[in-house]
From TrEMBL:
<dbReference type="GO" id="GO:0005737">
    <property type="term" value="C:cytoplasm"/>
</dbReference>
<dbReference type="InterPro" id="IPR001810">
    <property type="entry name" value="F-box_dom"/>
</dbReference>
<keyword id="KW-0833">Ubl conjugation pathway</keyword>
<dbReference type="InterPro" id="IPR050648">
    <property type="entry name" value="F-box_LRR-repeat"/>
</dbReference>
<dbReference type="InterPro" id="IPR006553">
    <property type="entry name" value="Leu-rich_rpt_Cys-con_subtyp"/>
</dbReference>
<dbReference type="Pfam" id="PF12937">
    <property type="entry name" value="F-box-like"/>
</dbReference>
<protein>
    <submittedName>
        <fullName>FXL22 protein</fullName>
    </submittedName>
</protein>
<dbReference type="InterPro" id="IPR036047">
    <property type="entry name" value="F-box-like_dom_sf"/>
</dbReference>
<dbReference type="InterPro" id="IPR032675">
    <property type="entry name" value="LRR_dom_sf"/>
</dbReference>
<feature type="domain" description="F-box">
    <location>
        <begin position="9"/>
        <end position="46"/>
    </location>
</feature>
Length: 226
């Protein structure tokens, strides 16, 4: 029995077990499989493990998308998530090459995926407060927002949650060093129904100018000596 003899439901089930590249390659073989590839039911969940994957054409964005995850676990994260004034010319050049990759993708999601329920970002060092604000505004059904090691996220994102996160039930801002305790308390006060987690965030040294950074480090050493 040839694969194209299977009905649409069986083909969709088969495609659901394949990764994005395999789906795309299979879709190139005939029109029937291309139609299965383009079925919105196949694209309710998307997981990406590198910003490079966001630029490929092996997936579809649309109203059917409910769950989106962009998790970048790599040594390169240590380059993008360190403070700009600490980067050498090579590191700066590396970061500049994909400065807007994730943000541009998320703005595309805002325009095309209004039914998004869950967004997870990890190691996305270039994502800004404004980008998350647009997601909250354009995806009013968003229930879960999980941010980890996203260094440009600040209390402005927490403020956006209190203003536009009416459907939000879960908020994680782990290892986001520019989040403050005051911002977290505001969320707890304004959104008591939201399950908030902020592992290490408010206890980390925030981004600052070199002079201020050195002062903080010296103060820390003095406390240790005492």
């Amino acid at each position: 029995m040839h694969i194209t003899q299977l009905n649409r439901e069986c083909l969709l089930h088969l495609f659901s077990f394949l990764d994005k590249n395999s789906r795309k390659n299979l879709a190139k073989t005939c029109h029937k499989l291309l139609e299965v590839f383009q079925d919105p039911l196949l694209w309710s969940l998307l997981n990406f493990h590198s910003p490079v994957e966001l630029k490929k054409d092996n997936f579809l964005l649309g109203p059917a998308l409910k769950y989106l995850s962009i998790c970048w676990y790599s040594e390169r994260v240590k380059v993008c998530n360190i403070e700009d004034w600490m980067k050498n010319s090579f590191q700066k050049d590396f970061c500049n090459r994909h400065e807007n990759t994730v943000s541009d993708f998320l703005l595309d999601v805002c325009n095309r995926c209004p039914n998004l329920l869950s967004l997870t970002l990890s190691g996305c060092g270039h994502v800004t407060d404004d980008c998350i604000l647009q997601v909250l505004k354009n995806c009013p059904n968003l229930r879960s927002l999980k941010l980890e090691n996203c260094v440009r996220i600040t209390d402005h994102t927490l403020e956006a949650v209190t203003l536009h996160g009416a459907s939000l039930r879960t908020l994680h801002v782990d290892f986001c060093r520019n989040i403050t305790q005051a911002g977290l308390e505001r969320v707890r006060e304004k959104c008591p129904s939201v399950m908030l987690r902020a592992e290490r965030s408010a206890n980390m040294i925030p981004d600052s100018k070199p002079e201020k950074k050195l002062m903080l480090e010296k103060a820390s050493r003095k406390l240790v000596q005492l």
